[in-house]
Design a protein that fits this description.
The structure is a single chain. The protein is mostly helical and 193 residues long. The protein has nine helices and no strands. Helix 2 runs antiparallel to helix 3.
Length: 193
């Protein structure tokens, strides 16, 4: 059965085996293993593994570093404590600070940080992160992937929700309207500025 404790433990073993057997997959498999370990309640083991990779792995790409930081941030947020959320925010801020990230990875890091901010009640910061993703929006339908549009729409929903939490109702309605128009124009093939 998928998602059971036994199947997740087996997945963690498989990622470990993959990391050992295939050097080119060592880092991504170790990150995935840590994600699974977090899900089965072995967050401390996952944290130790991820920190080891951050501190010792010389071939770490900016994308791998960002994914590790986002995974660590999740671990801290899932602790369910005020201290855990503070640590999650601090680590999340590190993930969005890398200027060498591609548009896709910058968007993913910002979305992740915004979600942690929302969970922490930091709605203004969340709104700023979501808005930064919206500024990276796909320019035209033919040049954008479905994943890019999914990221764009997730950011739009988050930005509107943040404005609603901030009781900025008119701004939320205006943003929702503008995003809907931009998406419709882009799907029609018009360039959106």
């Amino acid at each position: 059965l998928i998602g059971t404790a036994d199947s997740l433990a087996k997945a963690a073993e498989m990622y470990s085996l993959c990391a050992e057997k295939y050097p080119e997959l060592k880092i991504p498999a170790s990150i995935q293993q840590a994600s699974v370990l977090i899900r089965i309640g072995k967050g401390d083991e996952a944290e130790s593994s991820l920190k080891h990779i951050l501190n010792k792995e010389e071939s770490l790409t900016p994308e791998h570093r960002t994914l590790i930081l986002m995974t660590l941030s999740n671990k801290y947020a899932l602790e369910g404590t005020t201290e855990g959320l503070k640590k999650a925010l601090q680590v999340g801020e590190q993930s969005i600070s890398d200027s060498s990230l591609s548009k896709k990875w910058r968007s993913l890091a910002l979305l992740h940080h915004a979600a942690i901010c929302s969970r922490s009640g930091e709605f203004l910061t969340a709104y700023r992160d979501y808005s930064a993703v919206l500024e990276l929006k796909p320019a035209e339908r033919d040049g954008a992937t479905d994943r890019e549009w999914a990221i764009f729409h997730q950011a739009a929903i988050g930005a509107v929700a943040s404005l609603l939490e901030l009781e900025q109702y008119k701004d939320a309605a205006d943003l929702a309207d503008a995003v809907a128009k931009a998406a419709a124009m882009a799907r029609a093939g018009d360039v959106v500025s």
